[in-house]
């Protein structure tokens, strides 16, 4: 994993190269190996200094999660002891052989990062005396641990705060912000950016220039003062009070890792560095034992990664898309074209008029311009990407496309017409897809003479920001169509879930009950602010009323009318319609109309909840907060179980990942199935029965959940045993 070679100049270069992996990840064996090589170099009188680098194009992707799993299996003491062993290794690098009292005699150690350095891949460099990175705009540098329910626990939290100050460090610790090397240097994360070909040469030069200077970290010196001040310093006090408020505002107290991180920073800032490391280790142990961290790691890392690598893909040859046809140049069509072009795919973007097609291309151009302004790509790269999008009106331009996606108006007749037209101009066997959020794929496939080559690909809006893509198999959809859709999603760098055809598929099927329950609560006289805040306190990114405003009330009305027509006497959402329909008729259609459940200014910024709601639905007695939250949470979770029970979902990994990425189901929980495993099927059944008696059969627990409760099983344990 690690090798060491000392040159004639006396600089020992320790190179990280994990066999059989495209990226380096750290293990406890790796730490032991690194420690041995560092110790040998420090003890060798012929070695003047060290460089730690990677033989791969990137430095490291982080910690091997198997290590974390093994730690957890041993309990709190095993976690704490394991973390302290990591601290010991990094502290040895940091001290570099110096006398502990005088700080004299240290050998300079530099980290040379050829590319991406994440998690432990940045924590190791932070222990070095200088961090150099190759000028690689694609490289990402940062500490993303908070995004999977933990925080940097190998000294990254303590070192970054002491290096930058709590305020400057907060975006990198509390948000998991990632930066390219140039931005990382500007922020103070790293020290130097050099040309890739000069990386090792420059690292050696610095080491030799620092020989005899007794390099040390600022926090080991007696004159050290924390940037921005400690908690009891006048300036530091304001920083820490503000940080606490910021964390609570952003997380609503639903994310244990954020609170633990802030506690580690606050407590650690009051004590010497080595004591701060022990405090960090204790809080890391606390977080790692919280079920939320396990759930988030499983869903947002392990399961997400498995789905992106093709866990649901049929075992067929590569079906990468070479030329993509997109029918409909509206917001969705333009977004799909933009995503495909970014991935290097040639796109034909077709609409009824050249003006409309050009407008769609202009939408993609606007997104590329923003990327250039934000320095995410060069102007030349943007121009090259835009050149891949060819606007047209004639369906004959689809010749040569190996995949065609229609993204026209949600009308079965319109979709059937463009499907038939496309079929006349593409080669036999070409895969046709529909981007629809509600219309049954099996019905739409009737417009094709080859339903086995027809599939649903549901992109979420806006396409450029939403990472989930829902792939829907019709009854006749064949494996090649599934493979083609999954390969496209892989190409554009998004996360797929594969579901079977049913009304509203999976994501919308689960999100609609959440929205409807929020509206029902308002109709019952529950204060709208209570509904919204109850959802936020659950960890939902937005409340149901705000989400309706964002998607527009008229869309909700259209869905309601279509559902009523389909279900007839079985329709059960009259109470919801009694709220939505009058608001839509009054022109309160949401953000796009500058009026909905919220009021908006001329720029579309929310001003607050519409006071008129109180006139239409006078506040009644306030129910307990837990009742409101249980209704909102179970409305989604029970529907997810029904989707699994009915075969819409074939894999609970897709249910959890799809819920978190698709509509933001309480990410701290890891998704509806992870949440049900946390609270227990028995509790969920009992609570659902209680709510069903009070509020109706929509809360009746599915048979599958009852069986899980009776047999004392969990969803994830059952799936692993299968």
**Which strands sit side by side, in order, in the main sheet?**
14-13-12-15-16-17-18-19
Number of domains: 3
Provide the CATH architecture of the largest domain.
Alpha-Beta Complex
> What form results from the Cα inertia axes?
globular
Share in β-strands: 5-15%
> What is the CATH topology descriptor of the largest domain?
2-enoyl-CoA Hydratase, Chain A, domain 1
Number of strands: 21
Which spans have pLDDT < 50 for at least 5 consecutive residues?
none
Assembly form of the protein: single chain
The mean pLDDT is 92
- Main pleated sheet: 8 strands, mixed
Radius of gyration: 28 Å
Helical amount among residues, as a percent range?
Answer: 40-55%
Please, how many helices? 30
Topology:
Elements (H helix, E strand, L loop, with lengths): L1 E5 L4 E6 L8 E2 L1 H16 L5 E6 L7 E2 L1 H9 L1 H21 L13 E5 L3 E2 L1 H8 L2 E5 L6 E2 L13 H9 L1 H9 L3 E2 L1 H7 L4 E3 L4 H12 L23 H18 L4 H13 L4 H16 L2 H18 L14 E5 L3 H12 L3 E5 L3 H20 L5 H8 L2 E4 L10 E4 L5 H12 L7 E4 L6 H4 L9 E6 L8 E6 L5 H13 L3 E6 L6 H17 L4 H10 L6 H8 L1 H15 L6 H12 L12 E3 L5 E4 L2 H5 L8 H21 L6 H12 L8 H8 L1 H15 L7 H8 L4 H7 L1
Parallel strand pairs: 2-4, 3-5, 4-6, 6-8, 7-9, 8-11, 12-13, 12-15, 13-14, 15-16, 16-17, 18-19
Antiparallel strand pairs: 1-2, 9-10, 17-18, 20-21
């Amino acid at each position: 994993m690690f090798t060491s070679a000392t040159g004639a100049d006396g600089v020992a270069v320790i190179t990280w190269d994990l066999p059989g992996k495209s990226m380096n990840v750290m293990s406890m064996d790796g730490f032991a190996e690194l420690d041995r090589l560092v110790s040998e170099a420090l003890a060798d009188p012929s070695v003047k200094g060290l460089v730690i680098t990677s033989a791969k194009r990137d430095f490291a992707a982080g910690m091997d999660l198997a290590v974390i799993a093994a730690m957890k299996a041993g309990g709190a003491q095993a976690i704490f002891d394991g973390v302290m062993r990591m601290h010991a290794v990094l502290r040895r690098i940091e001290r570099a052989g110096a006398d502990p009292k005088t700080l004299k005699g240290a050998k300079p150690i530099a980290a040379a990062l050829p590319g991406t350095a994440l998690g432990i891949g940045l924590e190791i460099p932070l222990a070095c005396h200088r961090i150099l990175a190759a000028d690689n705009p694609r490289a990402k540098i940062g500490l993303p641990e908070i995004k999977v329910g933990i925080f940097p626990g190998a000294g990254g939290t303590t070192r970054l705060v002491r290096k930058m100050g709590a305020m400057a460090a907060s975006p990198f610790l509390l948000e998991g912000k990632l930066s390219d090397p140039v931005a990382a240097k500007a922020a103070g994360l790293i020290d130097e950016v050099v040309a890739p070909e000069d990386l090792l040469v420059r690292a050696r030069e610095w080491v030799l220039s620092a020989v005899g200077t007794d390099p040390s970290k600022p926090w080991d010196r007696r004159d050290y003062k924390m940037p921005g001040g400690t908690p009891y310093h006048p300036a530091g006090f304001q920083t820490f009070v503000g940080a606490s408020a910021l964390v609570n505002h952003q997380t609503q107290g639903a994310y244990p890792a954020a609170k633990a991180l802030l506690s580690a920073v606050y407590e650690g800032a009051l004590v010497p560095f080595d004591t701060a490391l022990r405090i960090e280790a204790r809080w890391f142990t606390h977080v790692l034992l919280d079920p939320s961290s396990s759930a988030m790691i499983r869903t947002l890392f392990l399961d997400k990664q498995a789905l992106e690598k093709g866990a649901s893909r049929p075992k067929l040859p590569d079906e990468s898309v070479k030329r993509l046809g997109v029918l409909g140049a509206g917001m969705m069509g333009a977004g799909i074209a933009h995503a495909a072009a970014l991935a290097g795919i040639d796109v034909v973007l077709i609409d009824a008029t050249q003006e409309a097609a050009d407008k769609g291309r202009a939408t993609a151009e606007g997104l590329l311009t923003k990327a250039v302004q934000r320095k995410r790509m060069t102007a030349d790269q943007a121009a090259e990407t835009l050149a891949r999008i060819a606007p047209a009106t004639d369906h004959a331009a689809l010749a040569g496309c190996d995949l065609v996606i229609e993204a026209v108006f949600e009308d079965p007749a319109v979709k059937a017409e463009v499907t038939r037209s496309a079929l006349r101009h593409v080669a036999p066997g070409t895969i046709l897809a529909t981007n629809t959020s509600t219309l049954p794929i099996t019905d739409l496939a009737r417009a094709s003479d080859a339903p086995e080559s027809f599939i649903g690909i549901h992109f979420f809006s806006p396409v450029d920001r939403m990472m989930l893509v829902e792939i829907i198999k019709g009854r006749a959809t064949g494996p090649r169509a599934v493979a083609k859709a999954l390969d496209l999603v892989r190409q554009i760098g998004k996360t797929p879930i594969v579901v079977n055809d049913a009304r509203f598929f999976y994501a919308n099927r689960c999100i609609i009950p959440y929205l409807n329950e929020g509206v029902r609560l308002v109709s019952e006289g529950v204060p709208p602010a209570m509904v919204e805040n109850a959802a936020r306190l659950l960890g939902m990114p937005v409340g149901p009323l705000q989400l309706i405003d964002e998607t527009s009330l008229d869309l909700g009305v259209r869905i309601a009318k279509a559902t009523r027509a389909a279900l007839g006497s079985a329709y059960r959402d009259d109470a919801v319609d009694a709220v939505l329909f009058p608001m839509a008729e009054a022109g309160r259609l949401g953000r796009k109309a500058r009026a909905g459940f919220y009021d908006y200014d001329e720029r579309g910024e929310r001003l607050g909840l519409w006071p008129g709601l109180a006139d239409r639905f006078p506040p009644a007695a306030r129910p307990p907060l837990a009742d409101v939250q249980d209704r909102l949470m179970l409305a989604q979770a029970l529907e997810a179980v029904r989707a699994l029970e009915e075969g819409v979902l074939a894999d609970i990994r897709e249910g959890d990942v799809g819920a978190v990425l698709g509509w933001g189901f309480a990410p701290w929980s890891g998704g509806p199935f992870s949440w049900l495993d946390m609270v227990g099927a028995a509790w969920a059944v009992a609570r659902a029965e209680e709510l069903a008696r009070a509020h109706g059969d929509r809360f009746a627990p599915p048979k599958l959940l009852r069986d899980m409760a009776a047999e004392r099983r969990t969803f994830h344990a059952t799936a692993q045993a299968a």
